[in-house]
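Final report, closing paragraph on structural work. Over the funding period we assembled a curated collection of sequence-structure pairs, and we close with a single example.
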Amino acid sequence: MTELAENKDTAQTAEPQGIGGWLILVAIGVVMGPIVLLVTTLPLLFDLLAIENWNVLTNPNSKSYIPYFVELVTGEMLANALMFIASLWLAVLFFTKHRWFARVYISYVLASALILVIDTYLVSIVLPDMPIWDEETVRGFFRSAIAICIWVPYMLVSRRVKNTFVR
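Its predicted structure, as stored:
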């Protein structure tokens, strides 16, 4: 009977667990996520909110006035702030090996893609003359699609993920 229990314990420890394998790539993404959000969002925000730029774009008496621009920028900044907070929470869940990590990660990846789609649509309405399918937007869509196609199934079926995130 003890031999059977020893074999069972050996089989359990033989399964992958801990931060290793493909999960290292997820770790890099989780660590870099908040940093990338800050590095890409803050300069745009500072440029946009420079007093002269903001007044020209948001003053109805200005030649360069853009209706609903304030609402668009406010929505984008709110979405970026929420994604930043979510990315920090994701990092905490990852490094504490919390059992919610996989679900939150999947939600984060799907939310990122949904926000990108909604933002692109709203920009096309508020700024109809702006080319929507620029290189940055296309890259963002590809990144989101790849993340969904690779990491969502990985989080759902990986034995390492199931064995690592148990707290």
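The CA atoms of residues 17 and 162 lie 8 Å apart. The chain is about 75% helix and 0% strand. We thank the funder for supporting this effort.
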